[in-house]
Known about the structure:
The protein is mainly alpha-helical and 116 residues long. It contains five helices and no strands. It is flat. It starts with a helix and ends with a helix.
Amino acid sequence: MTIQEAAERSGLSAHTLRYYERIGLIHSVRRDGSGHRDYVERDLEWLDFLTKLRTTGMPIAEMCRYAELRRMGDHTAAERRAMLEAHRDRVRCRIAELQQDLKVLDYKIDIYRGME
C-alpha cells in the first residue's frame, strides 16, 4: 500500500511515517518498481504498536532503542521485555495520578452542583 494509504490506516501522517523511517523507528520500507514506499500489513501492525507506546508516553529515544533491539533479533527479547515492563510501571503510576486528579475534579463538580 502507498504511504498515503498507510497514513490513513494508521492514523499517522505521511510526514510522520517518513520521520519514523528517517530516525529508525520503522525499517526501510520496501519500495515498488517506481521507487515508492510499499507498506504491508506487518508494517501497520508495528505502527499500531508504536502509536500505543507514544500515546502512553514513551519517549521517542526509548522507542528508537526498542526498535533497534527488535531489529537485532530474538537474543534481545529479555532487554525488550524489561523496557516494556519499566514503561508499564510508569503508565500505571500515571494512571494512579490521573485517578487522584479525577477525584479532585469530581469533588469540585459536586460543590458546584450543590450551589445550584
